[in-house]
């Protein structure tokens, strides 16, 4: 865990502000640059300019072009990279293995300080953004965001077009390029930027890194003028927005006129309180009354002086009365917050901090820069809280109720046509009965459960970690369907909420297409948590079944075709046949269970308790393995008007040699696939190829989504790519091979920083049906062997699983 000594801040001579976060033992490092300018800063004549520049800087810079660019380089290194343009800020960020952090920072800084902005790249990115706009037009979340902003029309930029498209950029490429240069000069200089670095390097090493590269930014020009904010703005009562069936929600948005940066820390606490799912919490009460399923906290607008904070409630029905009651309960809950004691607030804040430290490095940096970061000192949260809370008043609040057929007349805003209407004000004094709501009281004692006489065999494994972890997963050949997984998850929600308060964690979740039941916590907590979980699972009420089905349906809903296909993949690989939820049964076919860490006394207790767990535990299975669903094609109706294709190529043999080859091939394919199909041939806006594990199967996954081509054409693109890449494999230099091997070696050696993930990965590697790659196999995997497996991948199409969606298909 990090404390204040592990972080540092400095300002370089050129004015660049730098935040450093030393994270001991972290296998990966991350960097983020934030520019204090976003869509609201772009000239009115050029809608979309800020977004366009965000795209353009990835297209090559003074020192790094082609394969050396950040985008291509990070992909080849098996890292992650992305960027986002917001109302008043823009951020660029990446994550790679820690030893490569400096190489990445060099590229990131160069592309922001010295982008080439060539006309050729500009022409290309205009078409990319136009395609993105076509996609976003139908994207439910984007539409809901635009409708949320609409209520803040007192700020003129809130209704302006920001995404950009072919029409807004026009055909005069030199003029567009000039406008980009101008915008870049005005805002992309050291005084208007913040650099964040995080990694296992010491703060001194990180500071040296920042010095070495951060000095490349142009010294501060005169500071960008802050926004002239209007005085107190009169918020409308609210709006109604028509949305897709089954996607009803209520958004309550607050205008925070007194915002300062520290309020973001208080939002971390507000989020923890609002999303608490333990007994008597707001969320538990809303769920029990079948009003709302999930709550999200959003921060759609943030400048140095003001912000908008939104609470989103996903509603169970399009009935307006459900939205009204939800709002009344929330406001009642909000009114309880000022009375919370410091001890309680600090308790909730400690839970949020714990969750923060479990995030991957890049997520931590994103939270620090743009989200809800933890305070440097725990007690500081109380001060921020007392500053935030008085700003959350009903007077400073506006509503967006979104439901099917909630409105018919269209409003044009941010370049979207939205069916919206003004929401009629309803008297606040509606007689809505409010349930008893409560907050967790720290320090309540635990009562150890009574142990049954029977017991089951329970495997123990040794995994380095701070707390013991109990893991259950479906036995070999058995499976937990999505419907069953969501049913169990729903049944366990309130127990999970309580365990979180006691310093542990209970998680029923799908990882790589397999549903795991997982508990971690102190040795005294684990048996209590397991007993409570078993009690919930063995007494499923009708209400829980209904909630489980709703959770399952929500998970099925995807507003991007490729995501719908991705969530279908594990179901296809598991040979899940039924389309509907089996509302009668939990999985009975058996579980494998193990305890990672902990002593024998704990193992004994859990072994006795598990005898009551629904389904058999660690019993020799009479079942055979699920047959591989090879050569199958599955079709889904398209969500939007374009075609999407997922092609999964599992290992052609279940050996370590094949696995090593597959992983190396994926490292070769990944950057080339993106370059050729996305950048050169402009096939579509989703173009990806990577090594992928799902439902206990390893393979290479190709994903394409395109507004221009049909499924057959997309498939032909992949086939042609695979044919052409043979040539690349033959030509690849020895040095390049060695680099791929090193990247893979690092990936195999990396252990997850989070103890739960670590325990799961250890167990997965130990299981008999999973080959693991040794150093010898890696060395043996030479060019000849890779070419051999590459040919087999190409020549065995009957092994592949193909999922597709296109307009006009019926399920
Ligand atoms: Zn974009």
From TrEMBL:
The keyword Zinc applies. Pathway: Cofactor biosynthesis; pyrroloquinoline quinone biosynthesis. Keywords: Hydrolase, Metal-binding, Metalloprotease, PQQ biosynthesis, Protease, Zinc. Residues 250-400 form the Coenzyme PQQ synthesis protein F N-terminal lobe domain. Residues 470-583 form the Coenzyme PQQ synthesis protein F C-terminal lobe domain. It comes from the Bacteria. Residues 664-763 form the Coenzyme PQQ synthesis protein F-like C-terminal lobe domain. The keyword Flavoprotein does not apply. This is Coenzyme PQQ synthesis protein F. It comes from Paramixta manurensis.
């Amino acid at each position: 865990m990090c404390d204040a000594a592990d972080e540092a801040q400095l300002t370089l001579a050129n004015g660049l502000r730098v935040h450093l976060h030393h994270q001991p033992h972290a296998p990966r490092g991350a960097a983020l640059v934030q520019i204090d300018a976003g869509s609201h800063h772009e000239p009115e004549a050029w809608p979309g300019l800020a977004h366009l520049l965000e795209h353009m800087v990835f297209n090559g810079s003074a020192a790094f072009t082609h394969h050396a660019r950040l985008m291509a380089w990070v992909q080849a290194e098996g890292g992650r990279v992305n960027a986002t343009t917001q109302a008043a800020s823009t951020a660029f960020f990446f994550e790679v293995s820690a030893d490569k952090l400096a190489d990445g920072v060099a590229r990131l800084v160069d592309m922001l300080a010295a982008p080439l902005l060539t006309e050729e790249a500009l022409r290309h990115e205009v078409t990319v953004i136009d395609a993105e706009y076509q996609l976003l037009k139908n994207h439910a979340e984007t539409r809901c965001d635009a409708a949320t902003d609409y209520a803040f029309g007192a700020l003129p930029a809130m209704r302006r077009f920001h995404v950009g498209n072919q029409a807004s950029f026009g055909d005069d490429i030199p003029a567009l390029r000039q406008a980009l240069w101008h915008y870049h000069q005005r805002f992309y200089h050291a005084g208007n930027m913040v650099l964040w670095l995080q990694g296992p390097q010491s703060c001194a090493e990180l500071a040296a890194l920042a010095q070495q590269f951060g000095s490349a930014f142009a010294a501060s020009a005169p500071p960008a003028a802050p926004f002239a904010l209007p005085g107190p703005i009169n918020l409308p009562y609210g709006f109604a927005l028509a949305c897709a069936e089954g996607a009803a929600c209520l958004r309550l948005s607050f205008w925070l006129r007194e915002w300062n940066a520290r309020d973001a820390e208080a939002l971390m606490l507000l989020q923890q309180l609002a999303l608490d799912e333990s007994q008597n919490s707001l969320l538990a009460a809303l769920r029990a009354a079948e009003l709302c399923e999930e709550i999200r906290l959003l921060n759609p607008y943030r400048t140095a002086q003001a912000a908008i904070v939104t609470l989103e409630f996903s509603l169970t029905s399009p009935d307006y009365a459900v939205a009204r009651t939800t709002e009344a309960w929330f406001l009642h809950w909000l009114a309880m917050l000022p009375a919370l004691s410091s001890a309680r607030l600090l308790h909730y804040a400690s839970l949020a901090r714990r969750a923060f430290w479990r995030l991957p490095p890049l997520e931590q940096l994103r939270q620090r820069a743009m989200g809800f970061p933890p305070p440097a000192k725990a007690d500081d949260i109380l001060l921020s809280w007392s500053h935030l809370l008085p700003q959350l008043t009903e007077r400073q609040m506006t509503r967006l109720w979104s439901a099917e057929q909630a409105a018919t007349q269209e409003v044009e805003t941010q370049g979207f046509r939205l069916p919206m209407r003004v929401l009629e004000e309803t008297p606040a004094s509606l007689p809505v009965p409010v349930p008893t709501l409560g907050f967790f009281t720290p320090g309540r004692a635990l009562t150890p459960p009574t142990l049954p006489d029977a017991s089951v065999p329970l495997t123990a494994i040794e995994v380095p970690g701070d707390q013991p972890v109990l893991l259950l997963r479906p036995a070999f050949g058995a499976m937990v369907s999505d419907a069953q997984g969501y049913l169990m998850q729903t049944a366990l929600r309130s127990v999970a909420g309580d365990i979180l308060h006691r310093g542990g964690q209970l998680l029923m979740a799908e990882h790589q297409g397999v549903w795991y039941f997982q508990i971690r916590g102190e040795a005294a907590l684990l048996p209590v948590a397991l007993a409570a979980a078993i009690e919930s699972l063995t007494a499923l009420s009708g209400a829980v079944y209904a909630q489980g089905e709703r959770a399952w349906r929500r998970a099925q809903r995807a507003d991007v075709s490729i995501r719908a296909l991705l969530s279908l993949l594990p179901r296809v690989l598991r040979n899940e046949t039924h389309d509907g939820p089996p509302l009668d049964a939990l999985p009975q076919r058996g579980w494998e269970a193990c305890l990672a860490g902990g002593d024998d006394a704990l193992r004994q207790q859990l072994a006795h308790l598990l005898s009551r767990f629904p389904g058999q535990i660690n019993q020799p299975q009479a079942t055979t393995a699920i047959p591989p669903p090879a050569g199958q094609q599955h079709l889904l109706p398209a969500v939007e008007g374009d075609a999407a294709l997922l092609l999964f190529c599992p290992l052609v043999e279940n050996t370590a040699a094949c696995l090593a080859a597959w992983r190396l091939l994926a490292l070769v394919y990944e950057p080339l696939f993106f370059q050729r199909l996305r950048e050169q041939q402009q096939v579509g806006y989703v173009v990806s190829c990577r090594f992928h594990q799902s439902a206990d199967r390893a393979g290479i996954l190709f994903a394409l989504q395109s507004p221009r081509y049909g499924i057959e054409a997309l498939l032909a693109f992949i086939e042609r790519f695979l044919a052409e890449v043979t040539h690349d494999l033959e030509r690849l230099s020895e040095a390049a091979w060695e680099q791929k091997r090193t990247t893979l070696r690092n990936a195999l050696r990396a252990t997850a920083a989070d103890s739960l993930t670590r325990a799961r990965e250890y167990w997965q590697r130990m299981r008999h049906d999973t080959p693991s790659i040794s150093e010898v196999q890696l060395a043996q995997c030479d060019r000849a062997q890779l070419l051999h497996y590459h040919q087999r991948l190409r020549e065995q199409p009957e092994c592949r699983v193909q999922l597709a969606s296109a307009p006009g298909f019926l399920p």
